[in-house]
Amino acid sequence: MHTSNIDPKQIGYSWVPPGIVTSSKIQKYFDLLPKEKVPKIGSVGERYRIRQLNYQLPKQDIDYAYCKHVGLDKECFEEFVTTRNEIALDVGYIRECGTNTACANCKEQINQSELAVNATKFSNRVIWHPRCFQCCVCNELLADLTYCAFEEKIFCERHYAEIFKPRCNACDELIFSGEYTKAMEKDWHSSHFCCWQCDESLTGQRYVLRDDHPYCIKCYENVFANTCEECNKIIGIDSKDLSYKEKHWHEACFLCNKCRVSLVDKQFGSKADKIYCGNCYDSQFASRCDGCSEIFRAGTKKMEYKTRQWHEKCFSCCVCKTPIGTRSFIPREQEIYCSGCYEEKYATRCIKCNLIITSGGVTYKNEPWHRECFTCTNCTTSLAGQRFTSRDEKPYCAECFGELFAKRCTSCTKPITGIGGTRFISFEDRHWHNDCFICASCKTTLVGRGFITDGADIICPECAKQKLM
After folding, report:
1. Is residue 438's pLDDT more than 80?
2. Strands 115-118 and 93-96
3. Structure confidence by residue, pLDDT tens digits, 135-159
């Protein structure tokens, strides 16, 4: 047996590995383990070690003094312990690797002079990385390097023992008796497979599994079974439990509240916490369709909008009669329209092209136009957002209106449109722009002054006098 002469507590650990080690090698060894599994005093690793010792080396597997249920099988227990200790149980130790060797677990190489774990139950050439010296069942580090060898594999003591003996799921002791119970994929002393509620033995008895715990029939029914809404009796495990909205019934009690017919596998309705067959429910409570005025029978799909409701087939467009289903619709007064029919009947249409105006648009003389349709009657230039005028109820751009209809200046012959506040002078059947109303001789403005006609010209009084002299 390999040991260590170093006191673990003096270097801050609750345990150190056996073997030819020094303080520096111990530190090097622990550096090769996961940090949370290093048994440093007061650390998570120390608590991990204690848990693994209790789990991998259960006291009741080691010493009869800790067994409570071996009883008359003490001799079998001691024989098992002696055999295990002689042929399987041992403690590993650490040493420096002499030559490059593959780890028995991960198969990766352990280089010469690196620290490795040896196990005397195996050949001296079989070694492990410190992190790889694990139980082949639970895959946890072997607590304090304590292991059992079997068929060239290493086990913790717990899982080695379970190769040969069943373990009771209740008391965690090995079972040496030839008679025991297998249930819920686990092993139990026959006296330990008990009802979770009353502790009565379930061996050879019917039981019910609930939340991974077994219950005798009586306890299960008292604790978990539902009460029938009709007869107020327990619905036992041998009865079918029919439920609706957190209420339960025996199969034979699932009846219409009025005519008492069975509702099993039939449509039914519920009102004021009571259940009714389809006919009774319809006759007393069913609402009526706003389309056909027929009742909604139990289980019938209902379409609802605000305070109104329809059968699925009756919820249709009032024009084309197509069922609306899940498509969009438009309500108007008491009627329902599909989008297409609503647009066809009510949507705003352009006065020119008669097509629907979906966005924007122009209003002229209280009539709608597409922006692109509102054009000059003469040149078809768009008038949307532009200055325009009208003639005989038709719109014209300023230029076309002037060219077609406006008075023309006697002087410059250009149209006098009046758009934008243009001022003009009229005399008899002749017209002038304000700026064009000037003396034909001296070119001074005659606006607001007297003037004299001279054939086709107009002249100021001064020029008229000079002309007469």
Report:
1. yes
2. antiparallel
3. 999 999 999 999 999 999 999 999 9
Q: pLDDT digits over 175-221, tens only?
A: 998 888 888 888 988 888 888 888 888 887 888 888 888 899 889 88
- Cβ 332 vs Cβ 325: under 8 Å: no
End-to-end CA distance of the chain: 158
Rounded CA-CA distance 388/239 in Å is 89
Please report the pLDDT score of residue 298 as a whole number. 62
Give residue 469's pLDDT band: very low, low, confident or very high (50, 70, 90).
low
Query: pLDDT-based confidence at 467, cuts 50/70/90?
Result: confident
C-alpha 196/C-alpha 208 separation (Å) is 10
Give residues with Cβ within 8 angstroms of 397, minimum separation 6. 376, 378, 379, 381, 383, 386, 387, 388
Are residues 348 and 357 in contact, defined by beta-carbon separation less than 8 angstroms? yes
Cβ neighbours of residue 182 closer than 8 Å, sequence gap 6 or more: 188
Residue 305 CB coordination number (10 Å):
13
The number of beta carbons lying within 10 Å of the beta carbon of residue 23 is: 11
Residues contacting residue 101 through CB under 8 Å, at least 6 positions apart: 109, 110, 116, 125, 127
Contact (Cβ atoms closer than 8 angstroms) between residue 261 and residue 267: no
Identity of the residue numbered 425: I
